Amino acid sequence: MKVIVCGAGQVGTSIAEQLVSEQNDVTVIDQSAERIRRLNDTLDVRALLGHASHPDMLERAGANGADMIIAVTQFDEINMVACQVGHSLFNIPTKIARVRAQTYLQPAWSDLFSQNHLPIDLIISPEIEVARAITRRLHVPGATDSIGFVDELVQVVAVDIDENCPLIDTPLRQLTELFPDLHIRVFGIVRGEKILTPSGDDQILVGDEVYFAVETGQTARAMASFGHEEKEARRIVVIGGGNIGMYLSTQLFEEFGNLNLKIIEISKERAEFIAEKVGKATVLYGDSLDQEILDEANVGTAEEVIAVTNDDQVNVLSSLLAKRMGCKRVMTLVNNASYGSLMRSLGVDAVINPRAITVSRVLRQIRRGKIRAVHSVRSGLAEILEAEALATSPLVGKPLRDVKLPDGLIIGAVVRDRSVIIPRGDTEIQTKDRVVVFATRDAVRRVEKLFAVRLDFF
User: Fold this and answer.
1) Which residues contact 232 (CB under 8 A, 6 or more apart)?
2) Is the pLDDT at 68 greater than 90, yes or no?
3) Which of the four pLDDT bands, split at 50, 70 and 90, describes residue 444?
4) Among the four 34, 75, 308, 348, which has the fewest Cβ within 10 Å?
5) 180: pLDDT confidence band, cut at 50, 70 and 90?
6) CA 271 centroid distance within chain
7) Range of the domain at 89
8) What pTM does this model have?
């Protein structure tokens, strides 16, 4: 596939890395000579210096034969115009744009991005995506990650394993014996820097991060089986009143109802603005690294502190201060991927990576076959995919024990007529079943082939 990526910031670079790792033909455009030099030195891409929305630059990038344009520069208007130019002049089939300004995304202007106006196939709003990711995790207390699949019928949850987990050193095949009526499948383990797709003989160890698929109605029971019985947070402190913090606060009141919610914002003008927009919240003007402000926010008695400023260091340090003061759980937004591996060792309970969340949204458009949803794990080391089984798929019509699945791939759940099936050896997948799969990076292409229409079908 031939793809043009507009913007070589953190998100654009991550998308380019993912596409290159899958042998796609990638061209990146950016106005920064330093970013272009770095890309040419580190990735097998064409990196061009220039303005991403100019027709001559898009033509140089190969827009005439491109399959997709992904516009993720720092400027909404450049992203939108690049997609419009790609459509009008070069007939690029798939157009993706990152749009940050919430005014463009108001329901009143929902027709703006239609084919008759700005023909963009996917709009990505990092602020909205991050807020939704945080809210999902709050709905599953104790989870480090939580994603709904197949119309929320299946929940995929990640949990950290500590010494209090009753399943430590237990072979996974015994989960069925221990919990015969619990519809759960462990299908991914992060151990150190490695991603494992476990067999029934593998065991869970202290320090692992475990991904499991479960019927949504049984999520609380599944969490309890791993030693997590935390209650939903009602006393929450949000650090940072930017677009993410404000949208998140609004979402929290909509989804959780009555909350004791406090927001700490370092800008007085912004704090006053938020106080007007999010009337139910208590807004505190001050520095989140100031002990007095944290005391005033009652951080020590908070059930959850969520740090979402635009400064990674402030997020990390304020989270650690909150934890030291007695906060039960902290969730921290970190843009720098190199910080991620340090967070849990420092005591941060959950890490939010906006770049990974944005890349997951893009991957859904990139994946071939009947792929309906994608979630990236650990910056692309693995993916969780939802796919629809076609009549031509080699998975259909035979017991799974007789299907030679590629290494690095495990089926976690099958949904048929809105009923959730946790697959066993005798499970047979049928046409139109929705299948939730965990796949390591090397196995993703094979997943696409398993759920693609073969030419000989016609």
Assistant:
1) 138, 139, 141, 256
2) yes
3) confident
4) 34
5) confident
6) 29
7) 2-124
8) 0.85
pLDDT, tens digit, for every residue of 29-42?
999 999 999 999 99
Q: Whole-angstrom Cα distance, residue 366 to residue 17?
A: 13
CA dist., res. 362 & res. 360, Å (int): 5
Question: Apex CA 347: angle with CA 343 and CA 351, to 5°?
Answer: 40
Do 262 and 307 lie in one domain? The reply is yes
For 264, the token pair is 């700490």
CA-angle at 417, arms to 416 and 423, nearest 5°: 20
The predicted-structure confidence for 363-381, as pLDDT tens digits, reads as follows 777 776 678 888 888 877 8
Give the chain's domain count.
Answer: 3
| Amino acid at residue number 68 | M
| CA proximity to 128, closest of 106, 151, 102, 108 | 102
- Would 182 be classed as within a structural domain? no
